[in-house]
């Protein structure tokens, strides 16, 4: 029995060859605001580990499963955190009073570490390039409605009064940027830790 536990621990610890999270880091408040689909200040009400499958619209699951080949195990593995965030203030675009934010659960995939009960300013988008790791199609309109993705490459961070003031100023100006997609923090260069 002890041998089984030891082997399981070793496999979980050393059984993955991964890459580190690679991104340029967060841009300025203005740049990050321009890239994000929504920017909100909120408090984490719940956080649970779910499968990638659970991030999808229920009517798209079978279609996505059919397009998978060798990545089936990642599709069903619990590699995504689903964070329910009670919105205190919305700085960009109107959202529900409670929003669902997805982020990956591994550092190599640039997942953000939310803590229950903490306040954050979250920069998020409805789409994420995670879909490209599971199939080659564009991935439009496959995820659940009214859900968003974030990662460590964005300016998502614990609430700061200074950041909130800067966002209020941008909101007043109705600031929009046309920025090159190559610098978009939602397109980090590494994601899934492969077995």
UniProtKB/TrEMBL annotation:
Keyword annotations for this protein, in alphabetical order, are: Signal
The record's section on PROSITE patterns has: PROKAR_LIPOPROTEIN
**Which residues constitute the signal peptide according to the record?**
1-19
What is the name attached to this protein's record? Tissue inhibitor of metalloproteinase
Source organism of the structure: Fulvivirga kasyanovii
Taxonomic lineage of the native organism: Bacteria, Pseudomonadati, Bacteroidota, Cytophagia, Cytophagales
């Amino acid at each position: 029995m002890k041998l089984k536990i030891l082997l399981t621990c070793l496999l979980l610890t050393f059984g993955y060859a991964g890459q580190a999270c690679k991104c340029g880091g967060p841009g300025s408040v203005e740049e990050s605001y321009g890239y994000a689909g929504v920017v909100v200040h909120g408090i984490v009400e719940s956080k649970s580990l779910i499968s990638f499958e659970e991030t999808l619209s229920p009517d798209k699951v079978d279609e996505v499963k059919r397009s998978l080949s060798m990545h089936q195990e990642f599709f069903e593995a619990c590699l995504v955190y689903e964070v329910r965030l009670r919105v205190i203030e919305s700085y960009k675009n109107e959202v529900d009073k409670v929003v669902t934010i997805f982020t990956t659960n591994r550092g190599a995939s640039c997942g953000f570490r939310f803590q229950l009960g903490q306040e954050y300013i979250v920069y998020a988008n409805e789409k994420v390039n995670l879909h490209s790791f599971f199939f080659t199609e564009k991935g439009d309109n496959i995820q659940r409605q009214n859900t968003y993705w974030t990662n460590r490459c964005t300016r998502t961070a614990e609430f700061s009064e200074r950041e909130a003031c800067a966002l209020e100023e941008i909101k007043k100006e109705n600031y929009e940027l046309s920025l090159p997609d190559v610098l978009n923090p939602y397109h980090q260069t590494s994601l899934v830790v492969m077995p």
